[in-house]
Design brief:
Blueprint (H helix, E strand, L loop, with lengths): L3 E6 L2 E5 L1 H26 L11 H6 L4 H21 L1 H22 L3 H20 L10
Antiparallel strand pairs: 1-2
Helix pairs in contact: 1-3, 1-5, 3-4, 4-5
Length: 141
Amino acid sequence: METTGVTRSGGRAVSMNPDRQAFFLLRTVFTVAPIIFGLDKFTNILADWTIYLAPVATSVVPVPPQTFMYVVGVVEIIAGIAVALRPRFGSLLVAVWLLGIIVNLLVLGSFYDVALRDFGLMVAALALNRLSPARSGRLDR
């Protein structure tokens, strides 16, 4: 099997095959990004998240848009932690969450560029799921 990414560890060469590298890259981004975006739902530093919320969402769940975003933030933080601890499950949680965001944006009738970006992220989350090792009495690594 071809290996790449050779590094030095204790004076000897250590390498990792490309599918493990892809797994670690995707696991890292789908751990960090949801946690950062989830935390930002409480601060709105990166964006005013309520502009991305379709009004039908708050008519189904009758709360103010910012309160809705607080719940979204908590779910995103949980999803990021799930990817870190159990990437096979967490990646599916993130993929389903992204599908919900895509549907919300399509219902909103704008931000099609963001919906397309989130579709790409959803596909990447599904790729992480496929690369994640099955649990066999050990921690996913």
